Amino acid sequence: MKAAAALAATMASVPAIAAWEPTKPVEIVVAAGAGGASDQMARMMQAAIQKNNLMKQPMVVSLKGGASGAEALMYMKSSEGDPNRVLIAYSLIYMLPLSAKIPFNWRELTPVSVVALDQFVLWDNSAGPKTVKEFIAAAKAASSPFKMGGTGSKREDHVLTVFMEQKTGAKFSYLPYKSGGEAATQLVGNHTESNVNNPSENLEVWRAGQVRALCVFDKERIAYKTKVTDTQSWNDIPTCKEEGLDVQYLMLRAMFLPGKVTPEQQAFYVDLFQKVTQTPEYKDYMEKQALKPIFLSGGDMLKFLEEDDALNKSLMTEAGFVAK
Questions:
Q1: Which end of the chain is more exposed for a tag (fewer CB within 10 A), N or C?
Q2: What are 139-160's pLDDT values in tens digits?
Q3: What is the DSSP-derived secondary structure letter of residue 58?
């Protein structure tokens, strides 16, 4: 008993091995340009981590939107074993390798967590049709295809446009712009008839009464009920299915480390981003940008990614966007 007590005392005096944590600044890599939704989310996370002292080292935002985001994907692929780089990813990780045949697969990275889902809304100019039914009828009756603004050829906006054509028989001319902000400006100026921007990308022009939200491409309405315009909240926007247009799509927002990092390094970031989702900054950002809060890691995240990958591949194939 004395020996056991002595051993216990000795063990108690040995300091616990500290869990892994970064020893230099962490780079959060954005596969898009300045001011876009991914950049905005990265900077919200940067601020939340700093303000709430969630990490000793600073986090810096690194924009790598070259080649439609391929720059960021290849940068992460080439960073094997580096735990100081983390990618804020979206559905690009499935779509770009299919459409551009770049040598990248998300399975080469280390999944950390899914932190949000982004919805898409069908928007038209406030002077245009007032309902989805009127909008589709006008598009069908037009002498030339309606112009649909978007933010990337053979990407989420373009896929949604193709499926709207297939579901309705209306014809659209898809025009890719550099950002959702530019697509919003073109709609306000009547240079396009519509876009399918994420809520955050059309927020200010919707609030100003310059565009109309016709429907959201989800199985359920956006949850937030606080008034955004004088008369409407995000929750007041009907689903497209409610309006007779049965098209649904949600965009991934997730965090990845490079491949071949250690389980301890992965665990640090799972814990970090779970803490981020509990901060006032995250919750405020989710509501203001009308994002769908979610947190998945481990096996649940892998299951989600596999299913989401299969869905995106199916949509891309059906739309004819897979490179041969």
A1: C
A2: 999 999 999 999 878 889 999 9
A3: -
